[in-house]
Every structure is written in C-alpha cells, then in structure tokens.
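#lab-general

N.A. 3:47 PM
ok so I finally got the sequence cleaned up, no stray characters, all 496 residues accounted for. can someone with queue access submit it? mine expired

B.Y. 3:52 PM
send it over

N.A. 3:53 PM
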Amino acid sequence: MKKNLTLLLSFLCFLFGSSALFAQSVSIITNPGITGNDVTGGSNYHAMESIYLDSEIGSTNFTTPGLGIAHVDFSVNTVGTPTTITNFRIYMKDVPIGTTTLATGTYDTLTYTLVYNGSYTAAVTGFVGFDLQTPYVRASGTNLQVLIKRTDGIIYTGYNWNASTGNTVGGTSLLTCRRYNATTAPISTVSYLTPSNFRPQMRFVHTYVNDATVQQVYTLGKLPIPYGAPHAVAANILNSGTATMTNINVTLNVTGASTFTNSQVIPTLASGASATVTFAGFTPSATGNENIVVSVPNDDFNGNNSSTVAQLVTNNSYSYAYGLIAAGGVGFNGATGDFVAKFNTSVPTTVNQVSVNFSAGGQPFQVGIWDATGTGGSPGALLYTSPGQTSTTGVYTLAISPAVAVSGSFYVGVRQTGTSNFSFSYQVENPIRSNTFYYTAPSGGTTWTDFAPANSFRFMIEPRLTLANDVGVSTIDVPVAGVNSFCNTLIAPKAT
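B.Y. 4:20 PM
back already:
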C-alpha cells in the first residue's frame, strides 16, 4: 500500500537502466511506488514472488556462462529496524515469455534455483544488496521470476521499499507479484500468496573486479548564456567492481557549438561506493547544440564507461529535461502541494514566461517563483504566483506579466491546487542530484523536502528570461479550439 500523501507516479513509459549487449547492470524501477509490504514484509515471516520481463532486463543480458547475475540490489526508501535482515533467501527461475502476472496460489521452491541464503544489511537508502552465492545465468526469450523468503520470525518496523508497479508493457495495475506476510513460517506448495502490483525495484548486476560506471551526468538540457554561465557539469561515478579503485580519471568533453575539456581525479572509491565529481565551470561561446560526454578509462567492462547528454545553448531558456520525452507525471493524491526546480543566473534579470509539461490534463494549478533564502539554499520567499490555470496534456506555456526580477539562485515550480494528481511531467534521474528539486505539502507550505536521495524525478519545466527584442504568440483567441464554423461564415483569426 502507498503511504498517505506519498507522491503518486501516474505514468512511466520506459525502463531506466542499461540494456546493451552483455550489460553489466540493469535497474528495474519502472512505474515507481512505495510500500512497506515488499522485501522485509509486514509481519514475522515473509515470502513473495515477482516477475521481471525479458524486455525489461534485456534479452541478451546475463545469458552467457561467466556473465550471469552475480549481485542483486533492492531499493530502500526508508530504513527500518533492525537493519540486518536474517534468514534471508533469494531464488530465481525462468518462466515463459507469456507469463507476466501472478494469481493467488502457492509457490514451489523445487522449481527454483537457490542463489542466496544468508543475511541482508539495509542500513542506508537507495539501492542496497549483496553478491549471490550462486550466479544465475538466464535464458534469452524468457521472463525472470524471483522468490524472496524470510523465515527469522522477526517483525521489522519502519521499512519502506521502492517498488516497480505493474511492468513496462501492461501498465501500473498488472499483478506482477504475490506475497505472504504472516505470524507462521511460509511452507512451499502449502502457503498461499496474495497478488499485488507492487513488485520490488531491483538492480541485477554482473560483477567484475575493476569496473567504474558513469551512472549519471548532471547538467541542463537547455542552458542560457550569459545568464547560466559559467556552468559546471557534474557526474556520479559508481564502483561496480569488487575491488577498491584508486586514482580514477574522470573526463568531461564538450563538443558542438562550443568546446571544453576538463578532468577530475577520484583518489579512491570502495567497491559499491559512488562519488559525485564536479568539473570546472565553462562559458559556452555560442548558442547551438552541444554534446556533453563524461567518461572514465577502460577497465574490465567498458560498456558503462561513458555517458552522453545533448545540451542546447540558448539566449534565454533553462530546462533540466534531456530531450522531449517524459517518463511520467508526479503529483499528490488527496492533498495539495508545490513542486519546484532550482535555477541560477549570474546576471540580474527577469522571468517573463514559464512552460510546464504535463502527462495528463484537466487539473487546476498555478505557476510560482521563489527566491533561495530558505534553509541551506532551499526555497524561501514567494516572489510570484500566477492566476489559477487548468492543465493540458503536453507543454503548457504561461506568460508572466509583469516579468519577475531574479538574481543568483531562484526556484520556479508548479502548485497543485486540487487534491487529484496533476501529473507534472518528469524524467528519471538515478541517482537524483541533491539541493535541486523540492516539494512541500500542502500547497503554500514553507517546509521543503529534497527529492534526493529517494525520489528519482527530474522535472520538465522551462523558465524563460526577458530579452530586449522578443515577440511571441501567447494564445490563439479565434477560432476557439473545438468550435466549428459554417463554411459560409467569415472567420477573422485573432491571437494574443
């Protein structure tokens, strides 16, 4: 079940994770949700089966001897107690490609391969896991079914787990798992499991000795000059290998309308640890398209050694979106709330337009602008609130008149003024950058919560700055959308 006032994700259209040939790591986080009933369960004993699609994992991934699944991670949303989970077992098996859902019924361990039997320590949020004692080589063209069993008789309190609801093909409501939570131990072929659409988010990994991964590049999809310069790109680097790595040289290359190169060194990075590297700031010399490439040197697996982001340098537009495709929409069920993204200008200026992307329409909202005088640079004073608007699917553009003065850091966001999820579009960013995306509830609140580290949502909102010469069409007033005119009627088009 979802926590009260928890962010509800309306849609997620693609799988975030590597699916290249012989991918080293694949994360299943589609259609995110939160539940306390997965992984540890909500009673003394727990068992659950979940199905992960061949298309989600990648049909050629983990299918070759020596390149099987050797490590798994579950995604912790809230750490509970105790942090070490005992008598914990993981089983895996291949199931036919047409098997995508589970009905009420029993499980049979004899049909599975036991891949892990031991303890599981989940003391931090995010993906946390363990090496499998028996690596699992799956068959291409089949789905993967995972069985979790916990038989220690302990009640684990306070845990919440990030879930992947439904799957990438059938949507959020598909019953892709079934589970057992009770005061008596589950018994194979006897105990009945109840279906749910909340399967655990999982990361399947084939481990190498030396393997640095460029997990995420942090930049802007649209960067205005001179206002957004100098601009510092950052990247998150993960040691996916089994050995501690030293002196990892991380390189940024910018090509296209402007060129720039910079390198930073990570002195040491333990196995399973990650580090965020911030490169020297640069000032693009011209508007136009740029490629932002972050890379690490060759290691035991080179398929995850670089990541590329397309960036558009503009005269007056900011955007965190990498491209035009939304992963889904975020909003509140049963409450109002505000969502904001942080921007920065090196030159005092004014905001005269904001474009917001919605994954569904028909809900009331407002656009807001805040300064950054809150605790730790979080949102502070409210500088502007628009009149009430009604969302439409896709990009909704609102003129800000009179324009709002901003300088240094500032926030632009949307206020969900109704209690139905308004599906503010996002893209997946995992791990999410900190001190950038915030929310508060109810709307108008002054206590802000950082989306990092638990919520991997990069907002699709685009503020535009005032230029000396800038004329644009705000609305088409005549003809009105959805209104038909007779053929012999003269129409005088009007626009604002």
